[in-house]
Amino acid sequence: MGNQQLRVLTEEEALDSLIKNAIIGDGSLWKHPECVNKKLIFTSTTPELLQIKLNIYPKVFRTGVSLVKTDTHMGRFPNAAPLYRLASTVHARITELSTISRFELIDMLNLHDLGLYYLDDGSCHKRKDTKGSCFRYNIALGKTFTEKELNYLGKRLEDILGCYVGRFGQENKPKGKLGWYWHMTNEAANLILEEARSYSVLPHKFPETYVPRSERSKFRDYPVRE
């Protein structure tokens, strides 16, 4: 894994990848009332994830990863994990892509985007009925996709990965159905994880470094590919 090389992106591709990630992953597009264009804002309890995004296109970030002051951040519990933030400068391309349809966005997705998406919202779970290295892989898609968009996404994922990609489902909880999940086949997961490994190996995201949930708080210094 130490020999993994980052995908070489043009400046336009790098910026587009961050915008797409902000829309479907752990980010948002924000516009100040006095500004013409929007900016990217990413937040995470894992600062290494934000550093990965900063490394993709440093030119669009004027400042680095910063710690959010939880005493002024509404909705945060007093004992919650520290929250980190990464904000870009305003950019016309961010504003432009904020207006496209979800179908147009899906058409723009590529393997690089799926690798970043997995680092944001993907998960690796050891099967309870096995003692070996038998894992299942999911990506949380949230509530932002309609069923029609999910059908379109499924076809696009098969085009990107060249294989059967699995199924979409919803988790049933006592309070009702939550957001959508993509339950990946091993073949699809292997392609996406290989891409994600080129950026960072977070222990709980990969089978070879799998860390049980009860021990994850012990790991904070994750290797980030420069």
Notes on the protein architecture:
With 226 residues, the protein is α+β, with helices and mostly antiparallel strands. The chain has seven helices and eight strands. The protein folds into two domains: 11-97, Homing endonucleases (Endonuclease I-creI), CATH 3.10.28; 102-218, Roll (Endonuclease I-creI), CATH 3.10.28. 33% of the residues lie in helices and 20% in strands. The strands form two sheets. A four-stranded antiparallel sheet has the order 1-2-4-3, with helices on one face. Strands 5-6-8-7 form a four-stranded antiparallel sheet. α4 packs parallel to α6. It is globular, with a radius of gyration of 18 Å.
Please give a quick description of this structure.
The chain is of the alpha+beta class and 226 residues long. The protein has helices at 11-24, 47-56, 92-97, 102-108, 111-121, 147-161, 186-197, and strands at residues 27-30, 39-44, 66-67, 84-87, 122-126, 135-142, 166-173, 176-184. The strands form two sheets. The chain has a four-stranded antiparallel beta sheet with strand order 1-2-4-3, covered by helices on one side. A four-stranded antiparallel beta sheet has the order 5-6-8-7.
